[in-house]
Amino acid sequence: MSSSIPTLDAQALLAQVRALGEVGSGAPGDGRTRIALTDADRAGRDLLVQWMRELGLDVRVDRIGNIFGVLHAATHEGDRQPLMIGSHIDTVRNAGALDGCYGVLSGLAVARAWRAAGLAPSRAIVVAAFTNEEGVRFQPDMMGSLVYAGGMALQAALDVVGIDGVRLGDELARIAYAGELEPGAIAPLEYLELHIEQGPILEAEGQSIGVVENLQGISWQKITVHGTANHAGTTPLRLRHDAGYAAAAVVAFLREHVAAPSGGTTLATVGSLRFEPDVINVIARKATFTVDLRDPDEQRLQAAERRLGDFLVELAQREGVEIETERLARYEPVVFDAGLAAEIEAAAVRLGYASRRMTSGAGHDAQMMARIAPAAMIFVPSRAGISHNPREHTDDAQLVQGAQVLLEVVRRRLAN
Amino acid sequence: MSSSIPTLDAQALLAQVRALGEVGSGAPGDGRTRIALTDADRAGRDLLVQWMRELGLDVRVDRIGNIFGVLHAATHEGDRQPLMIGSHIDTVRNAGALDGCYGVLSGLAVARAWRAAGLAPSRAIVVAAFTNEEGVRFQPDMMGSLVYAGGMALQAALDVVGIDGVRLGDELARIAYAGELEPGAIAPLEYLELHIEQGPILEAEGQSIGVVENLQGISWQKITVHGTANHAGTTPLRLRHDAGYAAAAVVAFLREHVAAPSGGTTLATVGSLRFEPDVINVIARKATFTVDLRDPDEQRLQAAERRLGDFLVELAQREGVEIETERLARYEPVVFDAGLAAEIEAAAVRLGYASRRMTSGAGHDAQMMARIAPAAMIFVPSRAGISHNPREHTDDAQLVQGAQVLLEVVRRRLAN
Ligand SMILES: NC(=O)NCCC(=O)O
Ligand SMILES: NC(=O)NCCC(=O)O
Question: Start and end of every Peptidase M20 dimerisation domain (chains A, B) (predicted)?
Fold first, then answer.
């Protein structure tokens, strides 16, 4: 081993991104599905832990299943001032290979750079993979980092019941990732996260690097409409209490009267919607759907929530249905650490990569970690802005640029 | 056995309605689910066949699974002029006990009346239970009677694939109800069907008997919207191709711009709607839903179909989604036999039951049988107009009145 400057092994990084992307992959075109705490998630975790061990990292798992690979510092003092690089490896259904994984594996690439240089870092480098970032099965999203940052009690998180009726704590034990470390035990001095943008901005502007200054607020609700099942052919309009129509009216309202008039700052999405009994000639007795509202401005996000709430009251009255709402997640907008953002921007300039400051549309673990440490994020472009889709793509060269920026920032921070 | 006038055994009828209602029943309040050609349907069929045999009826099953219980006439000549009384015993999901079953079991009650009187009827009485009237699993609805009446080729019906991906012919063989009789082989001289109204009119007007003069047209389609899965937090409005929103917009359009402005003659229902991947933070890639349009007037039904079609074209263009439509069923309005309707009305008058002429909102096997024989229907009230719901209810006394009218009409027809 030659003692030199830590440098990126781009091929090793890209190979790991591809290999992890195979875990949980289905039919061609279907992408991969590694929903939190499923067998596929376990397989991904096992591979990650194996890679951490191969790099000689000290692997720790906490009680909510977050995985940490610690590259110890040269000194005891340095070990007490860890720099954490994290993201997640769970996915949505039929996902791309990059969302989350790219950030975790770039963290490994940073650790590998020190290893390959034959150096112990001046401060510990901790590579983190947080549990259940996507929030597809268990809500809220970003759950592992939220618990880690003290924003949700561990027991409450373990007791969350998923959309499949299974308790999170039971699944965690089943896949053997209920660790012993107390969440929060490794307190990072700073937190960095590299991620694909998942949106169209960088590509549209021909930029290589996004310096993420802030992250929009997220409001998730589950809404259940209780109507009356009745015959599609015999029930006159005035006697209908159609839970399906009421749900559809909400979906249309959100798009047409909440998102569109906001000029685009408020986003509203109904990604999940189910009817019961879901039969062609039966007026729906029940409709259950999710609402995802986002806005970088807390006041506007609250205004959107109020408009939805008012509409639900009016609709329930008008249609003679009962409407229940349940809060699944609520995060205020977050402003990242200005010093770290400046550091990222400076690194991009030094490397000669075009960059721009931006807001994150997606939620990320950095958003939670910002509660307990200075945090910032680096974005790379997403082709056509497509994510949460098997067609999610970033060119290899762009992935490497992002990892170079991360490495450069870590080098700087560890040189301080 | 005393030789006397055939009279109704009301208790036997009500007991059979209750007993058949137990087959396929689930948790309390969930009603029963005997969807066509499932194991529960088989259990219902087995019970019906057992009851037919107990009455000494000659049981025949045709190639589409329709079941016939023949009470032979006193003469060979009378056997060639059968009067058929039919309906169905399949149900929707979480159904009431009466829809269909009441009609079939009233047919048995008529046969029982002749048996108990120790008489052979002057013409054969054929009690029919048609396959897959509800059309929940396999479309179109009224399939058994449609095939019987020559409106759909047997092979095409056997090849229909259900919403669960299973071929109808395979299920029919599996439950051992693929009979040998050619559909249509027993050609009825006339056809009668007794059914609950499934709507609110008789109850609202305090009438006991509905003399059904006609039956509205039914248009069923399956619509599939193909959009693009993308991230709920990062995808700006202008880049969304949200299959879920597009589907919801159609549901709202049908109610607000097709059904409501028609003044209530056109009914539009979306009873089934599914999103893919159905995930909270993923814009739906695909939405699949059914459309049920009805109107007693063919021109207005066609106008409703055209307005829907025009809206789909405009919507696909506006949202950048692809929309596929598939026809599941299309029946023009039917006018029943005026002579039989008059006979029903006269019977109600003789029995002293208040009656009114009316249109059927629901589809019925009589609608298909009207293609090959003079046909008519008798309705009894449905409490609060509720049907396709476990709360479907008709008072016992009203059920008995309907069966009395049926028996009276049959006596008259057989006396001719
Ligand atoms: N990055 C990412 O896709 N996070 C999932 C949480 C969200 O919906 O924003
Ligand atoms: N009677 C009845 O519920 N028939 C089912 C077909 C329809 O949807 O009208």
Answer: 216-312
Given a cut of 90, whether residue A262 has pLDDT beyond it is no
Left if phi > 0, otherwise alpha if psi is -120 to 50, otherwise beta: which for B113? alpha
Percentages helix, strand, coil for chain B, rounded to the nearest 5? 40, 25, 40
Q: What is the average per-residue pLDDT within A305-332?
A: 97
CA triple B363-B367-B370, angle to 5 deg: 175
Using an 8 Å Cβ cutoff, are A187 and A166 in contact? no
Cβ count within 10 A of residue A79: 17
Q: Is A387 on the interface with B (CB under 8 A)?
A: yes
pLDDT at A245: 98
Which whole number is the average pLDDT over A283-299? 97
Q: How many CB atoms lie within 10 A of CB B354?
A: 13
Residues 6+ apart with CB under 8 A from A342: none
Kindly report, residue by residue over A127-154, the tens digit of the pLDDT.
999 999 999 999 999 999 999 999 999 9
**Beta strand pairing status for B190-196 and B83-88?**
parallel
B136 with A386: Cβ contact below 8 A:
no
Distances (CA, A) of A303 to A140, A216, A258, A308, B264: 21, 14, 9, 9, 36
| B412 close to B343: Cβ distance less than 8 angstroms | yes
**Per-residue pLDDT averaged across A206-233, rounded?**
97
Q: Quote the pLDDT of residue A80.
A: 95
Residue B193 CA, chain-centre distance (Å), reads 11
Cα B407 to Cα B350: distance, rounded to the nearest angstrom:
12
Who's near A321: CB < 8 A, 6+ residues apart?
A225, A226, A227, A241, A242, A243, A246, A315
Residue A277 vs residues A231, A274, B48, B244, B274: alpha-carbon distances, Å: 12, 9, 27, 19, 12
Q: What is the pLDDT of residue B24?
A: 96
At residue A368 the predicted structure's pLDDT band, cuts being 50, 70 and 90, is: very high
**Which B residues in the span 76-105 are in contact with A, Cβ-Cβ below 8 Å?**
92-94
Q: Which of B92, B124, B132, B97 is nearest to B13 (CA)?
A: B97
Structure tokens of B255?
Answer: 């109610």
**For an interface test with A, which of B230, B256, B275 has the most A Cβ atoms less than 10 Å from its Cβ?**
B230
* Residues above pLDDT 70, as percent of chain A: 99
| Residue B388 near chain A (CB below 8 Å) | yes
Query: Residue A37, by phi and psi: left (phi above 0), alpha (psi -120 to 50) or beta?
Result: left
The residue with tokens 């791309």 is A96
| pLDDT computed for residue A3 by the predictor | 52
CA of residue A331 to ligand 1 center, whole Å = 12
Q: Quick check: A354 pLDDT over 80?
A: yes
Tell me which of A21-35, A130-144, A221-235 is least confident: A21-35
Integer-rounded Cα Rg, in Å, for chain A is 23
Q: What's the pLDDT at B1?
A: 43
Structure tokens at B412: 């008259």
Low-confidence ranges of chain B (pLDDT < 50): 1-2
Mutate to test the interface with B, among A269, A274, A387 (most CBs of B within 10 A): A269
Q: What per-residue confidence (pLDDT) applies to B264?
A: 83
How far apart are the C-alpha atoms of B254 and B210, rounded to whole Å?
29
Structure tokens belonging to residue A163: 């959309």
Q: Is residue A1's pLDDT more than 50? A: no
For residue A301, what are the CA distances in angstroms to A329, B124, B264?
13, 73, 39
Q: How far is it, in rounded angstroms, from Cα B234 to Cα A228?
A: 37
Collapsing DSSP states into helix, strand and coil, what is residue A215?
Answer: strand
Q: E strands of A89-208, at which residues?
A: 125-130, 190-196
- Which residues on neighbouring strands pair with residue A86, listed in sequence order? A128
Across the interface, whether the CB atoms of A198 and B290 are under 8 A apart is answered no
